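INFO  loader      accepted 1 record
INFO  loader      residues=110
INFO  predictor   begin
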Amino acid sequence: MAYPGDEEDEREGQDNDAPSFAAEEQLILGTEDDALPWLEADDEEEEPGFDWRLITYGVTGLAVVAALLGAIWWFTRDRADPQLVADGSTIAAPAGPYKQRPDDAGGAEV
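INFO  predictor   done
INFO  writer      dumping tokens
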């Protein structure tokens, strides 16, 4: 386990060509007079006016919804069957009777 006072002992076993980082070295970030942009107040005021981006987003959203609804309608609509063509003729009745007397003439029990 290495302790802060043992730095000199560790350096003796290392190559002299390797860079060593001493505790005295510090990064120079700037002077104290420099203002940090993330700490400054936002003094710029936005100009009053209409924001056209909202209109653009609204129109684009409505266009997308209309396109989706149109696509759903197009793929799910009823299409005319080419075999069934309305020619105005009447439907032929079946050959047998269409009403028959029931086997149990008493009716249904409720």
